[in-house]
């Protein structure tokens, strides 16, 4: 593991590292914010999963989460959104919604994607093992959050790992990738044509199939260009209501899909998670 960037922020340290990831069969990067409280002992940890086209740096530079993380004494880890490297396959048409920058936090099973696109195992196994070994974080107190594709990843990972996270939250998540163009393209290519295999990576399907609920918060901008065709929060709201999941879904007039939206409410998300630590 090699440190490649470091900044002081609100008394804590914003750090960036690169390392070889066995699950991804190549080099990857991640960022971590360590609040000043980490100097005195292990602190709770939040994992942030970013959306399409992003790297680990988008959240770090645009969301402004460091102030709230320092206030609540919480570390925040942000991985990349897909494997990278010259030997990693990309969308053959160069589209933004598949391949590099669009790992969808699944374990791909189809050729040629399966060799490198094991983002689910990376985020749930390899990265946490590294973080818990190398940094002063408390694995018994952790949460997960994300945006868009990363919101989908945060909610599905939390539901698939009961008891691991105290809470999950998302900004404008892809609520049901089985039923939107982004998800159908990605899941077909990564997992194959059998739609039953897709259910393990669809928040609404996981709730329908009896996943153990946990506190969840979702914020959605009503001026989001992807609201009706891709995100469909009403599907998530209906599934949560049908199966008794404690979902707090808030809609915000005038807000779009950008990091301006995330920055407006990120302090509340950090506080939401901190309330369960």
Written description of the protein model:
This protein is α/β, with parallel strands linked by helices. It has one domain: Alpha/Beta hydrolase fold, catalytic domain (Rossmann fold). The protein is built from 9 helices and 9 strands. A 9-stranded mixed β-sheet has the order 1-2-3-5-4-6-7-8-9, sandwiched between helices. A hairpin with a 4-residue loop joins strand 2 (12-21) and strand 3 (26-34). The mean pLDDT is 97.
Number of domains: 1
Write the CATH architecture name.
3-Layer(aba) Sandwich
Largest sheet: 9 strands, mixed
The fourth-level CATH homologous superfamily is Alpha/Beta hydrolase fold, catalytic domain
Supply Rg.
17 Å
What tags apply to this protein structure?
24% strand, Rossmann fold, 9 strands, 277 residues, 9-stranded mixed sheet, alpha/beta, 32% helix, single chain
Question: Mind sketching the topology for me?
Answer:
Layout lengths: L1 E8 L2 E10 L4 E9 L8 E7 L6 H7 L3 H7 L2 E5 L39 H16 L2 E11 L1 H12 L7 E4 L9 H11 L11 H6 L7 E6 L5 H5 L1 H10 L4 E6 L6 H16 L3
Parallel strand pairs: 4-5, 4-6, 6-7, 7-8, 8-9
Antiparallel strand pairs: 1-2, 2-3, 3-5
In brief, what are we looking at here?
The protein has 277 residues and is α/β, with parallel strands linked by helices. Helix content is 32%, strand content 24%. It has one domain: Rossmann fold (3-Layer(aba) Sandwich), CATH 3.40.50.
